[in-house]
Amino acid sequence: MKVSVVMPVYNAEASVLHALESLRAQTFRPLEIIVVNDGSTDGTLELLHQQKGIKLLDHSHRGIAPALNDGLAAANGEYIARMDADDLCHPDRIEKQVSFLNAFPAIGIVGCRVGFGGDREKQAGYAVYVDWINSLIDPEEIALNRFVESPFVHPSVMFRRELFEDYGAYRDGSFPEDYELWLRWMANGVKAGKVDEELVTWNDPPHRLSRTDDRYSIDAFYATKAEYLFQWLKKHNPHHPEVIVWGAGRVTRKRAAILENHGLKITHYIDLKPRTLNCGTPVIQPDALPDPDTCFILPMVGKRGAREKIRAFLKKRGFTEGVNCIFAA
């Protein structure tokens, strides 16, 4: 078996058959479809019992990580594709991702561009996130931006089964299980890429976990990335544990404090306006930045549009991402 699709399902009677239809319409054959019913309380299980050509697992409601791991344990495929019951695959999704992994044996994770299946005006934040994800195609771009936000839409991903065998499967806790997985695997040297085509429609219903569960809150994402970002800095920052953080606002300092708890030392903050902080750490303005070979910059400004301006400024000053700066917000 070349490919197994793992799809956890919880109370998805309105959408699960559409998701299955999009899998059955795939041009790639054969396809092992594993559906894990995570204790649904609506009519989902009854619908699934009526479906042919799927491997159905049913257990009490334990959450998405245990459901995913049950699916992985039951999978026979060399490649594992993720899918959610709210979303739709384009007919050639699996075929093109298989071709990608076959063509690039050094890459372990492959995603794709996704279509936003929501209202761009009412759900503007999600729409911007989709646009950002779709801008990250090249493996180096994905690697350099993984500390900003999760670089993949979870149900758009396919990966080699040896990754979870070698580096562990999904962890269950107070954090986004997919983002933690990508960060952990990439910390172990796994490379990730994308098919530069829109192959999945990512819908945004009001009950989506990323909207309703505290594990997907902004604070949870920061706490998750802090551990792996510190590991990365320890390995790649020649001035470790010292960094200069770009952004001196209260929110940025609160999140930077998580890194300080890991052992990071913030020598300066950068802000556009002169200010004095109660913590005693000096604040400098961008024009006062030291030379690139004497410091490491950690931009953590989350304001929309700021990242692009900071990136342009640092590039003009001779800074190189992954060498003497890395973006984290």
Gyration radius over CA: 21 Å
Measured by DSSP, the beta-strand proportion falls in 15-25%
Class from secondary-structure proportions: alpha/beta
Q: Segments where pLDDT lies below 50 for 5+ residues? A: none
Number of helices: 12
CATH class of the largest domain: Alpha Beta
Description:
With 329 residues, the protein is an alpha/beta fold. The protein has two domains: 214 residues, Spore Coat Polysaccharide Biosynthesis Protein SpsA, Chain A, CATH 3.90.550; 91 residues, Rossmann fold (3-Layer(aba) Sandwich). 37% of the residues lie in helices and 21% in strands. The protein contains twelve helices and twelve strands. The protein has an eight-stranded mixed sheet with strand order 3-2-1-4-7-6-8-5. A four-stranded parallel sheet has the order 11-10-9-12, covered by helices on one side. The mean pLDDT is 94.
Question: What would the keywords be for this entry?
Answer:
2 domains; 8-stranded mixed sheet; Rossmann fold; 4-stranded parallel sheet; elongated; 12 strands; alpha/beta; about 20% strand; Spore Coat Polysaccharide Biosynthesis Protein SpsA, Chain A; about 325 residues; 12 helices
Topology summary:
Blueprint: E1 3-9, H1 16-24, E2 32-38, H2 44-49, E3 55-59, H3 64-74, E4 79-82, E5 88-89, H4 93-103, E6 107-117, H5 124-135, H6 139-145, E7 158-160, H7 161-167, H8 177-187, E8 191-203, H9 209-212, H10 218-236, E9 242-246, H11 250-262, E10 265-270, E11 283-284, E12 297-299, H12 306-316
The gist of it:
The protein is of the alpha/beta class and 329 residues long. Helix content is 37%, strand content 21%.
